[in-house]
Amino acid sequence: MRLSQAFLPVLKESPTDAQIVSHKLMLRSGLVRQTAAGIYAWLPLGYRVLKKIEGIVREEQDRAGAIELLMPTLQSAELWRESGRYDAYGPEMLRIRDRHEREMLYGPTNEEMITVIFRDEARSYRDLPRTLYHIQWKFRDEVRPRFGVMRGREFLMKDAYSFDLDEAGARQSYYTQLLAYLRTFQRMGIRAVPMKAASGPIGGDLSHEFIVLAPTGESEVFYDAEYEGMDWTQSGLSYGDAVGLQALFDRIGQTYAATDETHEETRWAEVPGERQRQGRGIEVGHIFNFGTKYSEAMGFRVSGPDGAMVTPQMGSYGIGVSRLVGAIIEASHDEAGIVWPEAVAPWRVGLVTMRGDDAASVAAAGDLYDKLTSAGVETLYDDRDERGGAKLAGMDLMGLPWQLIIGPRGLAQGTAELKDRRTGEKQELSLESALARLTA
Ligand code: 5CA
Predict the structure, then answer these.
(1) 171-182, pLDDT tens digit by residue?
(2) Where is it mostly found (predicted)?
(3) Measured from the CA of 153, which atom of ligand 1 is nearest?
(4) 56-83 pLDDT per residue, tens
(5) Confidence at residue 200, expressed as pLDDT on a 0 to 100 scale
């Protein structure tokens, strides 16, 4: 993308209506604009990041064997009356009437809808187990929407739902999502620690929140530094390996991590002092096992292997896709702006001419831009005739992982400067080597 033809509005001043750094940076760098309280339009820069995050979530769900579908945002009140949640849900649910006075709602989650969709098709034990998911907008009329996309009213969520014949199967489905989550967040370049969550309506040990450390997080967290060294993508674990998944779950159960809601002082005291990590965190995912709560209430039964009818065991698994954009910025920024992890960066390379009025620079940069884009390297080329310093500051703010800087002096020697946004490290390279490095 050439910046001269893009729609990338940036704010010169730091916005005063934002309290936390990620929200300020998202507004300044033009990722989002608020259109109503807690509701945001995703501008091109933000939308590119959102799609990258969504892509990683999708890929890892697919690998874990979950099956994608798409359910609507609007739901009928009838559906929620079947589970008994319509009246119980309270003011967070946005209730709407259509022209026929039928009661509708903007879905805050989809347990009811998926249960009915799957119930109406699944007949026997052979149709199970299945995990179905979608990535869809949700609406929760939060009392205090705040911190931008972090606690919005309309937000994008990945929600998966598992159906199993028995409790042992439900645990496998839960462990599978647990591993998928660990890998998903690691691939995004952030560390999300699984923390035992206050158990849901069913109780037991099967509810975890995934928390990214950030001083502005909403909950207080305590965890063992062991988590900092764990590598889930290289772990060699495979999704179908029941024994390995059980071992993973046991390891997590033995390695302390809790929010203030589930914190246990006696267990915490057993973690060696030098390994105790305490701080605040942002919940980017939450997984639940709730047994037969919805299947029972909604009359979902299948015939079991011995002919007897069985009520399927269910779980649900959420990831805050739009919240992650804010959470990643909270975890990865500096004074100059955002520092995107490569996997979610809107573009990989920011190409800058220091002198937009220098014909040789413009020609060289245009050539590099063509070569980079045809090699499939996502490149944003600031081809405007602006001050070089201002362009570099804009690139720092936007946080693309690499900056390739073309100036008349270097060019005379056949070189350009390659800057690593994260470390600030700069290297003077020949144009060919710079290209080779970025296309490798
Ligand atoms: N039905 C379950 C699992 S699918 C569920 O709704 N879980 S949840 O309430 O924990 O939401 C899942 C994730 O959505 C949360 O972990 C959080 O990352 C994100 N989320 C929840 N509320 C908001 C909000 N108001 N703004 C942005 N993201 C949110």
Answers:
(1) 999 999 999 999
(2) cytoplasm
(3) 25
(4) 999 999 999 999 999 999 999 999 999 9
(5) 59
For residue 422, report the phi and psi dihedrals to the nearest 5 degrees: -70, -45
Residues of the domain holding 376: 347-439
* pLDDT of the residue at 203: 58
Structural domain count of the chain: 2
CA of 157 to the centre of ligand 1 (A): 7
DSSP conformation letters of 118-154: HHTT--BGGG-SEEEEEEEEEE---SS-BTGGGB-SE
| pLDDT digits 0-9 by tens, 156-201 | 999 999 999 999 999 999 999 999 999 999 999 999 999 998 865 5
* Separation CA 4–CA 10 (nearest Å): 13
Q: Which two tokens stand for residue 1?
A: 């993308």
Tokens at residue 243, please? Answer: 């024994």
Q: Does residue 89 form part of some domain?
A: no
Per-residue pLDDT, averaged over 384-406, amounts to 97
Q: Ligand 1: residues within 6 Å at CB?
A: 109, 111, 140, 142, 151-152, 155, 157, 159, 283-286, 316-318, 320, 322-323
Are residues 233 and 264 both part of a single domain? yes
- 9 and 155 assigned to the same domain: yes
Overall average pLDDT of the 239-268 stretch: 95
Q: Are residues 381 and 330 in the same domain?
A: no
Q: Tell me if 157 sits within 8 A of 321, measured CB to CB.
A: yes
If you measure from the C-alpha of residue 8 to the centroid of ligand 1, how many angstroms do you get, rounded to a whole number? 29
Q: How many CB atoms lie within 10 A of CB 256?
A: 22
Averaged pLDDT for residues 102-122: 98
363/310 same-domain check: no
- For residues 222 and 276, the answer to whether their CB atoms sit within 8 Å is yes
**318 and 353 together in one domain:** no
Ligand 1 centroid–CA 49 distance in Å is: 19
